[in-house]
Amino acid sequence: QAKERGRSRVETFSLTLQHNATKRAQMDVALRFALDRDELSLCYQPKVSLIDGSVLGFELLLRWRSEEYGDIPPSEFIPIAESSGIIIPIGLWVLEQACWQLNRWQSEAGDRNHLTVAVNVSMRQLMQPSFLSDVAEILARTGIAASSLELEVTETSAMANPAQTAETMAALKTLGIRLALDDFGTGYSSLAYLQSLPIDVLKIDKTFVSHLGKQQNDDAIVRLIIALAKTLHLEIVAEGVENKAQMHELQKLGCLIGQGHYFSPPMKQHEAEKLLRANRQFLQA
Ligand code: C2E
Ligand code: MG
Ligand code: MG
Ligand code: MG
């Protein structure tokens, strides 16, 4: 009987796998047409100063509304796009959109010159030999200040290819753009490696932020990451700030920038524009 149960469990498991594989293959095909079919869009999540509540910039997050499959989250379609390589044209599209948006903001109002846009970049893109010249070309075409563009690479993906990542990042740095290590704290990078990377920003992974303000010592990792960032002269951004307690805790620990649903979920472009026009200060709200 136990054997029977065991077998049926195995069967269910492999059926699920097969189903997943089929779904993945179907999505892979659909994703190839997504750009041409105008199914991709970007949303904007504000990065907020924890000192005065002002909007410092936005992270751009990709959305896919598939005709066949509906809304698919990035956690599902980005890995597929990476393994097929379709992330390369998609990633360039994201980058170009981001730079044109910034161009509009920068020419609209002089005092918005400090605004930054952050774009997520996958390892597959970073390892593309033409990536550096592609980025340079987009910067030239859109005419934005390179220092207003930030590229985010996850710590885990950087660690998958540490030497090449460091090399490519160094080359990208010569363009004058900013570099961030995303989901920091989840990827096991060594201090020595961190120091060798020409990065400007550490983004504390939201799992650590979510633990803040609950129990004693829950701030240990965040405290450590902030100390590390200070030692290495890096800017620090907390992601996934969901409530006031977490924000207060972050302020207490000396984290100056936050992002998360407590301030705003990722929003549509026109909402981001409205936010900027209103000059909204999040801490006074
Ligand atoms: P990420 O870069 O770490 O982005 C932050 C994620 O946290 C986003 O998920 C965002 O919607 C979510 N988030 C923001 N505030 C909160 C909060 O308060 N609580 C919680 N629980 N979550 C919050 P999203 O948009 O689903 O994106 C997931 C990941 O997909 C991103 O993580 C990034 O790694 C990847 N991604 C998104 N857009 C792109 C893109 O254009 N290119 C590439 N290569 N990757 C992308
Ligand atoms: Mg990110
Ligand atoms: Mg992140
Ligand atoms: Mg993430």
TrEMBL record:
Source superkingdom: Bacteria
EAL domain mapped to chain residues: 24-280
Name of the molecule in the record: EAL domain-containing protein
